[in-house]
Amino acid sequence: MARTRSRPWLVAWSIGVVSLGFLALHSCSRSTQRAWSDGRIETEPDVRVELTRFAAVRAATIAVQSAFEVKSPDGRSFGRAGASDSVALSPASRGSAVQVGERICASATVEIVPESDGAIVVEGRNYRGVLVIRAKRDGTLELVNRLPMEDYIAGVVGCEMPLSWSEEALGAQAIAARTYALYEVTNTRRDGFDVFDTTASQVYRGMEADTEKARRVIAATRGMYMTYKGTILKAYFHSTCGGHTASGASVFGGTALEPLAGVPCGACTQSKYHRWQVEFEAAGVAEKLGAAGYPVSGEIARIEVLSPGPGGHGTEVRVVAAGGERVVPASKFRAALGTSELRSTAFTAVRAGTKFRIDGRGWGHGVGLCQWG
């Protein structure tokens, strides 16, 4: 594809025929670099990150490391204050206002805007950008961190991949994370935010992993993201595929896309999670499923992964119990048992006494970039 004049921030990587699925910096992929040329995105966008631990709190206390202004989203100023180690936040007037310190701000949403790039500290964690505080009708507050895309990616990369890895690998991760975030910003219509700060989107812990090395990687890949047939790709990634990446359509539903179709991967054998084994008490499995809203009747005799793809990742799990059987979406089954213990949906389960022995492969959903691959 011909190269056109690059815009100041965004450079798209147009994905054509690829091996692993996507990622120009991955050894198994091929793509062509071009400048974004359709005019949809001109400048670096902001990302609104919901701070999940503060999605519905009765009150919160923050610190601001510089002078700051309290504003409404439409620009009204509620005043300025100096740096402070303790700023109390609470809802007021039944969710139609926010109290910041001693000041009641007549807006259901207010913003803490630091001067001189001062950090905002929430529960000991530093954040760049702006803190958005929303008073909800149920009498709780929601905290959202709004910041420029590149600052956000600098906080994500080291949370999703060890910063001890090579800058080439981290650069690939940065492009994948930026692409995923850009997709969410431009396509997802959540109420008041774009992404979560957990694995529900991408792990983000503010400035915790925002190191000099992370910044070098971000600078080297600044504005680079991926498209497929002119559309921003939802660039999934995971730790270890276990030998074959999974189809995005089979795991997440939606339209099947060639870059997310799933391909063999022989490089992730070095991961200690390429193959793994874990045991669960049968009674414990039943209890966890019930707590997740999938109760079973009687003792569980068999657990079977249904419709496994080439990598073994199933779409559903059949649980056969004394009182009947239940089919559970594979992702929900994994979440019920704990994603750090049941590391993927590519597994087989054998009853052994009072327990199930589970032999599995990979860690994560298996779609897109295999970080160990």
Tell me the number of structural domains.
Answer: 3
Give the biggest sheet: 7 strands, mixed
Q: What level of helicity do the residues show?
A: 10-25%
Q: What is the tally of beta strands?
A: 25
Which structural class is indicated by helix and strand composition? alpha+beta
Structure annotation, total helices: 6
The stretches of 5 or more residues where confidence is low (pLDDT under 50) are 1-7, 16-39
How would you describe the shape? globular
Mean pLDDT: 89
Distance between the termini: 27 Å
Strand order of the largest sheet: 6-5-10-13-14-3-15
Strand proportion: 25-35%
Descriptive terms for the model:
alpha+beta, 6-stranded antiparallel sheet, globular, 17% helix, single chain, 373 residues
Overview of the molecule:
The chain has 373 residues and is α+β, with helices and mostly antiparallel strands. The protein folds into three domains: 11-45 and 150-235, no CATH class; 58-139, no CATH class; 275-361, no CATH class. The chain is 17% helix and 33% strand. The chain has helices at residues 149-160, 167-187, 212-220, 248-252, 282-291, 330-337, and strands spanning 11-15, 32-35, 46-50, 60-64, 68-71, 77-81, 84-92, 97-100, 103-105, 109-114, 120-122, 125-127, 130-135, 141-148, 195-196, 224-228, 231-232, 237-238, 275-281, 300-306, 316-321, 324-329, 347-352, 355-361, 369-370. The strands form six sheets. Strands 6-5-10-13-14-3-15 form a seven-stranded mixed sheet. Strands 9-8-7-4-11-12 form a six-stranded antiparallel sheet, with no helix packed on it. Strands 2-1-16-17 form a four-stranded mixed sheet. The radius of gyration is 23 Å and the shape is globular.
